[in-house]
Amino acid sequence: MPILEASELRKQYQLGEHTVEALRGVDFVVEKGQFFAIMGPSGSGKSTLLHLLGGLDKPSNGEVTLAGKRLSVLDDTKLTLVRRHNIGFVFQFFNLLPTLTAEENIALPLVIDGQNLRQHQARIDALLELVGLTDRRHHKPDQLSGGEQQRVALARALVTEPAIVLADEPTGNLDSKSGAVVMQLLRRSCDELNQAIVVVTHDPRAAAYADRVVFLGDGIVVGEVFCDGDKDMSERLRILMEAMEEYQS
Question: What is the mean pLDDT of residues 213-241?
Fold first, then answer.
């Protein structure tokens, strides 16, 4: 069973007297342990699609199935629990609480879920080590660089051991070096923890880490490319750039 399935997803917005079709029928599946990227120009529907996949918004038509559950039939309470127990979110603007330390921000989803933090301390410590922030655990967000804040956000997304991580432009506010570190960490969580990763990005260097890249244009899937895991990053990037030229021309 796929961990995530989008079926004929449509999303319409009313803008004054005009109806805007942000998504016009999107279909795909994401398998467990797959690294999946969604690319497209500004206004193509990427972020709208990610919000629907994560249950943060509801489609006008179509269905999202997450971990075998159809999101459209869930009430708000059940939808919240499905998100909390199955999805880790990583956003472009980090969304860390400024009054909490790095360690406390990472632990926050466990606190919200009513978990005993002592029982999860080993996992929190392991995540701090994974993202290279063990010595920064007591620092607050304003004491961390942008790259360090995004690594905290990634560890926070992983702390509940979700089946899937949804990342919206995770390198958008980072320099190329910090962005590469974040993407490498996402790749590791996919390979070592068998988590599915879905990344929305306009950056081909970020998308090149994915196993499969889907291209959106005007609210529909206009093409896709599969990346061979045996190829080095420069070759993967070349294949991706060629596909971008084809699908965005």
Answer: 86
For residues 105, 110, 111 and 117, what is the CA-based torsion angle, rounded to 10 degrees?
Answer: -90
Whether residue 213 is predicted with pLDDT greater than 90 in this model: the reply is: yes
CB-count exposure of residue 158 (10 Å: 0-12, 13-18, 19+): buried
DSSP secondary structure code for residue 228 in this structure: P
**Spatial CB neighbours of 195, under 8 Å, sequence gap ≥ 6:** 33, 88, 158, 162, 163, 164, 165, 189
CATH 3.40.720.10 is right for the domain spanning 4-94+168-248: no
Give all strands of the β-sheet with 220-226 in edge-to-edge order.
87-90, 164-168, 196-200, 35-39, 212-217, 220-226
Interatomic CA distance for residues 182 and 206, integer angstroms: 9
- Which of 152, 169, 146, 177 lies closest to 37 in space, CA to CA? 169
The overall average pLDDT reported for the chain is 91
In contact, 159 and 106? CB cutoff 8 Å? yes
Q: How far is CA 131 from its chain centroid? A: 17
Q: How many Å separate Cα 238 from the centre of its chain?
A: 23
- Threshold 0.70, pTM exceeds: yes
pLDDT tens profile 27-84: 999 999 999 999 988 888 888 999 999 999 999 999 999 999 999 999 999 999 999 8
Spatial CA neighbour of 156 closest among 104, 113, 98: 104
Burial classification of residue 141, based on how many CB atoms lie within 10 Å of its CB (0-12 exposed, 13-18 middle, 19 or more buried): buried
Helix (H, G, I), strand (E, B) or coil at 63: strand
